[in-house]
Structure formats: C-alpha cells, structure tokens
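Why should sequence recovery work at all? Because a backbone constrains its sequence more than one might expect. Tight turns favour small or flexible residues, buried strands favour hydrophobic ones, and helices have their own preferences. The token representation captures these environments compactly. In the example below, the structure is given first.
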C-alpha cells in the first residue's frame, strides 16, 4: 500500500506539469473568448481538477475549453470488479430544444456514455489542496441490452457525506445534474456507488474541482430563529439546489470561471407580470476592492436583473417573488446577488428583502454599501428547516416604507439556494455513511405536526409515524445488508 502510494507520487510531477500546461492553454483561450470582465479580473487555477467522462472510449473536449478523461484514462481512480459500459452516439434526440435553455448544450456529450456498477464500486482521488471542492455528477439512463438504467436504485457517498440515497433516474426524457460543495479535509476522498439490494448503479460523468476558499465565509445571517449571525458554515456539506441568473438567459460553464451553470428565472417567478428585465453591458460592472469578485459570480449575472414593472408610474404595492420547491427537511444557505444597474444616482434605491416571509434586510441600500453604481454585492442567509412550511424557499424583494428620495423599486440580479447537510451528515435522507439512521429529525418533525394540527391530529400523526418507522426499519435492514457487502479495496495506482 505504502509502496503503491509512493509510486503514485513519483508519477505526479509529470502529470501535474502536463496539467498546468494544458490549463494555461485553456486560461488563454478563456481570455481570448472573453466575457467582458473588468481588468481586475481574477484568474483561477484549481489545484485539484479531475474530469471524467465515464464509459467513454475517448476523451471529450467541451466548448468551455475543458477536456474530460476517457474511461480507460481514468481507470486508475476506480476500484471495481467489473467493466460494464453504455454509450450512444448522441443524446440530442432525447433532449428537446427547450431543455437547452436550462441545460447547457455544451455538457450534452457528457451524458452520452455511462459506467454501470452491479456491485459497490469506488473512485478515489488524491487531494493536493484540502478545502472546498466542487463535485458534479451527471446522470442519464442510457439504453443497455442487459441493464435498464431507469430501474437503477443506488446510494452515492463520500467517506463522510451521503450525497444520494436510494436514488434513481426514472425519467429517460430528462438529464440529471447534481452539484455539491464539499470541504475535503484529508489528502484523499473516495466516492462510492453502492447499488441498493438487487439493483445496480451508474454514472455518466464526474467532476471534482477545487473551489476557492473565499467562495463561502463561515457565517451568514440567520433569517429564522434564532435571528442573528449563523456561524459554522464550514462544518456543512452543500448541494446546490438552484443557481439563477435573474432577469437574464442561461449562463453556461463557459461564461463562469468555476464552470458553473446559471439558469434563467422565468419558471420561478410567481408574478412575472409585475417584473421587468433590465440589463447593462457586462463590461460596465465594476467589481469592488474586497467583497464580490468574478469568482463569486460572473459579471453576466450582475449585468442583468429583474425590477418592478410599474416602478416609476404608480406606487407599486407588491413584492417581486421567486418560489423554489425544496426538500423541507433540510436547512438552506441562500445567497442573493445585487448590483444597482437601475439608478441614475447614489442612494436612490431602497428596498426590503424577505426570505420565506421573514425580513432578511430592511431598507437595503446597495449603492451606499458599495459606494457606487454597477458595483456587485451579495448577502448570505441561512434558512432553518423549521421555517420551511410549504416545501418551498421563497425570496421576495419589495419597496420599503422608509423615506425615499425616488420612486419605489426593488431589484434582484442573482440567486443561489444551497442545501446544507443534516446532522446525519447526509444531503439526501436520514442515513449516515455508516448506515445508521438519525432520530432527532424525526422527533422535531413530530413536534411540528403536533403544533400545527393540535392534539387530535397529533395522535393520528404519531400513529402514522409508527407505521412509517416500521417501514423505515425495513429500509434500515436493507441498508445494513448493503453495507456489509461493502468492500474496501486497496488503491491501485498505475505508475
Ligand atoms: C425499463 O424500465 C421502465 C420502468 O420499469 C419501463 O417502463 C421500460 O419499458 C423499460 N425499458 C426496457 C427497454 O425494458
Ligand atoms: C474545512 O474544514 C476545516 C476543518 O473543520 C476548517 O478548518 C476549514 O476552514 C474548512 N474550510 C472551508 C473552506 O470551509
Ligand atoms: C427576462 O429574460 C429572460 C431570459 O432572457 C426571459 O426568459 C424572461 O421571460 C424575461 N422576463 C421578462 C419578465 O420579460
Ligand atoms: C412583501 O412580502 C412580505 C413578506 O412576505 C410581506 O410582509 C409584505 O407585506 C409584502 N409587501 C407587499 C407590498 O405586498
Ligand atoms: C435549525 O434549528 C434547529 C432547532 O432550533 C437547530 O438544532 C439546528 O442546528 C438549526 N440548523 C441550522 C442549519 O440552522
Ligand atoms: C403554499 O402552496 C400553495 C399551493 O402550492 C399555495 O397556494 C400557497 O399560496 C402557498 N403558501 C405560502 C405561504 O407560500
């Protein structure tokens, strides 16, 4: 084992040298393509950058300048007993043109091949630089003569976090994309695909990329009780549920230094008639010294916004509202991006920001905070699971009742809704990586139900929970069976 490790480190300098050369080519390309950034643009070179197009016989070049390794080239990361692959020439026949306004077409080649696992299989990656990493997983159930991928049920987990539990992709007309932000504290990370009993697992592509430390601070404003500062964000694993370019089109990975995708907001606005798109040329966005950077969000996000449609004519008496359905058993980190691209002078725009009906910021005055117009600004909020009543996160901006020098208006430029891991260390369900089930969450849910419907309904709820618990016990047993078949295999490095 130690010898194999040594072998691996000997092969490193060469591969990282090639990697750095390739990377600099891509960065140059990126500059040449240009996205109108200000001269203060921040280059970003990820220390760890694993890109794998699973099941693909050849490496894959994307239009964002990145190359995904083929399946054979990435065999050294994977320990598995088997070699079951699926691929098609192209998936363009299954993705309708409408889905490309939500999914970047540049990533379609990543979905056209997959690796299938009939037993527990594990990728292991060396980590050069501990800290937050972006992990992106791509799933699409391709046809295979012996495996019907729409019937695959499986769990995906790292050494400490459950990412997906009893997961399946039953709809073969949709692409499935998952993005995580994990704080890797050791010098390696494993990614295990564990089929549920009698089933199998698959994955189409994997990305594991270092994220800049400055992407998240350790604290945010808590919007639900206890109101105040929430500390300790670095102890949580994240899953990005929504990342939205408000008032503008999709931004594909090519337009973002961390290869993120930003979706348009048209399906999330509850009263689009009340909103109006505004935009300015991206190159007038002026990143501040300290604060938001192009790594926080590209200028394409800050150069478009939604504002109130009848601002300037009447006295608008409504909020702009975005509603996103979420799993209500988790807490969420909500990042809102603002940039005053609507005012003609400083201190003209004041508005309130609400999250799930609770005051996030009262009388937000962006230009005073940033000392300028067209200067990016962002705020992070933590929304506790206990404050999610309707299975949704609702973000609102609306006029504040304070004294205004100009007509009331409110804007939003970008929006991220990020799921936070629960006390079981899971982002999906109540099981921890070791397969034990968390009971505290079940307890708090009992309380919520009892409060809402009173004792009579509460009794029924308890009955239901007992029934549910019995069901869960079965599930737990199944998970334990699976866990006992889980085999750790020594790392195989190719020198
Ligand atoms: C795969 O399974 C799904 C769901 O059970 C079923 O609808 C579909 O017909 C199956 N496909 C094939 C090719 O057997
Ligand atoms: C990751 O976790 C370690 C240990 O808890 C902590 O010291 C570090 O600040 C965290 N890093 C980030 C980027 O959150
Ligand atoms: C704003 O622009 C986006 C994308 O360009 C579009 O989908 C949306 O319908 C527009 N919204 C309004 C209110 O015009
Ligand atoms: C905006 O939303 C907040 C929170 O949901 C609510 O309290 C407020 O009354 C709304 N404002 C208007 C003008 O509807
Ligand atoms: C949510 O609230 C519960 C109960 O007050 C608390 O135990 C938990 O730590 C909170 N979680 C977050 C992420 O705020
Ligand atoms: C809850 O959801 C229902 C149905 O989707 C909707 O009619 C209602 O307005 C929502 N309530 C809140 C407080 O968001």
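From this structural description, the recovered sequence reads:
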């Amino acid at each position: 084992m130690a010898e194999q490790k040594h072998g691996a480190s000997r092969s490193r300098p060469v591969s990282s040298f090639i990697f750095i050369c390739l990377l600099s080519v891509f960065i140059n390309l990126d500059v040449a393509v240009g996205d109108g950034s200000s001269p203060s643009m921040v280059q970003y070179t990820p220390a760890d950058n694993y890109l794998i197009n699973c099941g693909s016989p050849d490496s894959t070049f994307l239009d964002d300048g990145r190359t995904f390794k083929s399946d054979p080239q990435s065999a050294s990361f994977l320990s598995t007993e088997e070699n079951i692959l699926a691929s098609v020439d192209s998936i363009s026949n299954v993705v309708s043109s409408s889905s490309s306004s939500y999914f970047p077409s540049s990533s379609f080649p990543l979905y056209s091949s997959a690796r299938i696992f009939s037993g527990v299989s594990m990728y292991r990656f060396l980590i050069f630089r501990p800290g937050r990493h972006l992990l992106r997983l791509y799933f699409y159930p391709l046809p295979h003569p012996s495996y019907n991928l729409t019937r695959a049920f499986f769990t995906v987990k790292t050494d400490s976090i459950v990412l997906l539990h009893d997961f399946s992709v039953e709809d073969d007309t949709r692409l499935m994309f998952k993005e995580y932000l994990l704080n890797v504290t050791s010098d390696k990370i494993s990614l295990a695909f564990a089929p549920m009993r009698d089933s199998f697992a698959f994955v189409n592509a994997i990305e594991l990329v270092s994220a800049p430390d400055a992407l998240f601070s350790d604290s945010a404003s808590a919007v639900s009780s206890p109101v105040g500062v929430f500390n300790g964000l670095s102890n949580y694993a994240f899953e990005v549920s929504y990342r939205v370019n408000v008032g503008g089109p999709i931004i594909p990975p090519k337009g973002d230094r961390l290869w993120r995708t930003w979706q348009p907001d048209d399906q999330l606005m509850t009263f689009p008639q009340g909103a109006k798109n505004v935009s300015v040329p991206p190159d007038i966005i002026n990143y501040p010294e300290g604060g938001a950077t192009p790594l926080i969000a590209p200028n394409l996000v800050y150069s478009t916004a939604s504002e109130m449609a009848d601002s300037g004519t009447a006295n608008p008496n409504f909020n702009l509202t975005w509603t996103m359905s979420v799993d209500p058993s988790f807490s969420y980190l909500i990042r809102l991006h603002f940039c005053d691209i609507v005012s003609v002078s400083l201190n003209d725009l004041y508005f309130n920001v609400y999250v799930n009906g609770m005051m996030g910021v009262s009388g937000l005055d962006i230009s005073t905070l940033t000392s300028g117009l067209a200067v990016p600004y962002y705020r992070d909020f933590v929304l506790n699971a206990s404050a999610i009543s309707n299975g949704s996160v609702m973000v609102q901006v609306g006029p504040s009742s304070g004294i205004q020098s100009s007509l009331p208006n409110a804007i939003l430029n970008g929006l991220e809704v990020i799921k936070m891991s629960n006390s079981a260390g899971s982002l999906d369900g109540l099981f921890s990586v070791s397969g034990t089930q968390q009971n505290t969450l079940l307890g708090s849910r009992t309380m919520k139900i009892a409060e809402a419907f009173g004792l009579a309904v509460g009794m029924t709820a308890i009955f239901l929970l007992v029934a549910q618990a019995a069901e869960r016990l079965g599930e737990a047993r199944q998970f334990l069976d699976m866990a006992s078949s889980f085999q750790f295999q020594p790392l195989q490095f190719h020198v």
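A few observations help interpret the result. The mean pLDDT is 82.
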